[in-house]
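Lecture 7 notes: from sequence to structure.
We start with the chain below.
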Amino acid sequence: MEVNAIEIQNVCKTYGKVEAVTDLSFTVKKSHCFGLLGPNGAGKSTTMKMLYAKAKRNCGNINILGFDPSKNELEIKYISGIVPQDDNLDTELTVVQNLIIYSKFYGMEKKEALKKIDYLLDFMELKEKSNSTIRQLSGGMKRRLVIARALINSPQLLILDEPTTGLDPQVRHLIWDKIRMLKKEGVTIVLTTHYMEEAFQICDDLIMMNKGKKVLQGRPQELITSNIEKFVLEIINVDSFQSINIEESIIRKEASGNRVYLYSNQLIALEDLSKKLNTGDFYLRQSNLEDVFLKMTGRGLNE
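Predicted structure tokens for the same chain:
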């Protein structure tokens, strides 16, 4: 029987008159990776902060591996690893020195800490940079070091706030592989991300949030299957679309800026339409998690 690592029930959070999170409920199973997706201002980071007691909820219940953040802040921090959005490393110190200082927060003996640091630098492929200062590291190296730092206390729960934003594809895929390895070792992972492909690749379950509320929850592939048509004809040149008639009973249309999106479960219907367009004016593909996300949260900016 699978056991929940996190249980969130009817949680809300307000800042003055602003409702950052409203009546939010979800559970996260142990050794699973759980994703929070949503546009800016959806309430993702506020939710994450409530998990490790940086923000206090106004209502509802939160259980983190048997602890309540409002009562057991230190206990939760002791069994958790936090990777914030910003790489808040000490730039004047070396890679190893940064990790040694962090190990002291958990009362680790120096011998034990050095052994763990050696393992983590090897795990995150940073061993050759052990004695480099932070200023000498690339953006991807800094991000991997922040993740290594979050693992210094062998956490049961790892919280990742946009872990791969701004990183090149090679580093992103490396971090995905490490997250998969951590799951196999029994670590529960909660992350926020703006990369739909990232959520699809590594999340066992996820929720989509918009304006502080949960709008959808499920496994990535199931969300695609249940909430969007199988195929989409993405028309880049709107002018080439104006004279084309579509059969609305089998094709759903969305428009955004200078693009038109035609969704359908019938591939042949979209293929027939594409033949009426100029080469380079369209892109015919399978629907993905980003299509679901935009359908549920809208294509406009959420300021």
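Points to note: The mean pLDDT is 92. The longest helix spans residues 169-184.
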